[in-house]
Amino acid sequence: MASESVVQLEAFSPDFVAEHPEIDWVTIRGMRNRMVHGYFDINLDYLYQTAKHEALDLVRIVDSLIHIYPEGE
Q1: pTM for this entry
Q2: Whether 25 contacts 17, CB under 8 Å
Q3: Rounded alpha-carbon distances, angstroms, from residue 58 to 17, 31, 38, 40
Q4: Which of 2, 12, 23, 65 is most deeply buried (CB count within 10 A of its CB)?
Q5: Is residue 10 part of a domain?
């Protein structure tokens, strides 16, 4: 799950998170927490719309970052 990766990135590489404000780290972490702890109260339409639209934007950003950082960095 990408959101769990955000939690790990914030813990182990806060500089990377700070260098990439174009990624909405707080919202991703919040979505993760909502799904893990509030799963009985999730708006499925909102979740679907997020997956359909926002996730694609995030994939584009992450894909561009993959090409910035050489392997092993």
Answers
A1: 0.68
A2: yes
A3: 14, 14, 23, 26
A4: 23
A5: yes
Tell me whether residue 73 is in a domain: no
Q: Which long-range contacts (CB under 8 A, 24 or more apart) does 63-67 make?
A: 65/20
The residue written with tokens 């992450």 in the block is: 62
Residue-range definition of the domain harbouring residue 25: 2-68
SS3 4: helix
Query: Do residues 4 and 32 lie in contact, with contact meaning Cβ atoms separated by under 8 Å?
Result: yes
pLDDT tens series, the chain, 73 aa? 566 788 888 888 899 889 999 888 888 888 888 888 877 888 889 889 888 888 888 888 888 888 776 665 5
